[in-house]
């Protein structure tokens, strides 16, 4: 698979840095980080066309599901994966019901995150 362009949205600076490092280690993705839903919407409005959205669920002002709804309202249909610390089956099912192709549970292993995300992308094709 060719290099992925990922838009990662998370209000936690440490998670953004760890996620960028995880994909840097795999060497097959460019990660564009956003600190909020509004920041992500600005990047998209400025012309960023990611192959994948990686969205934190719990963020102030606009959570991940609300952000995904906004992006879908812009007629953008790139796949989305939510990142959350919530592990209950009903919560994961709710997120998948919002249109995500997968859910990454936090804390995640940065050494396997790239493979995990690529597996979700393959499964959605």
Automatic annotation (TrEMBL):
SMART domains: REC. The modification 4-aspartylphosphate is found at residue 56. SUPFAM superfamilies: CheY-like (SSF52172). Residues 5-121 form the Response regulatory domain. It holds the Pfam family Response_reg. One of its GO terms (biological process) is phosphorelay signal transduction system. Keywords: Phosphoprotein. PANTHER family: RESPONSE REGULATORY DOMAIN-CONTAINING PROTEIN, STRESS RESPONSE REGULATOR PROTEIN 1. This is Response regulator receiver domain-containing protein. It comes from Brevundimonas viscosa. The lineage of its organism: Bacteria, Pseudomonadati, Pseudomonadota, Alphaproteobacteria, Caulobacterales.
């Amino acid at each position: 698979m060719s290099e992925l362009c990922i838009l990662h949205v998370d209000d936690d600076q440490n998670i953004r840095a760890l996620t960028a490092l995880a994909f840097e280690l795999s060497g097959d993705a460019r990660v564009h980080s956003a600190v909020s839903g509004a920041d992500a919407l600005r990047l998209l409005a400025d012309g960023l066309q990611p192959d994948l959205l990686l969205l934190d669920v719990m963020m102030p002002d606009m959570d991940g599901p609300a952000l995904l709804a906004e992006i879908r309202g812009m007629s953008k249909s790139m796949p989305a994966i939510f990142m959350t610390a919530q592990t209950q089956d009903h919560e994961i099912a709710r997120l998948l019901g919002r249109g995500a192709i997968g859910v990454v549970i936090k804390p995640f292993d940065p050494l396997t995150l790239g493979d995990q995300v690529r597996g979700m992308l393959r499964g959605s094709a």
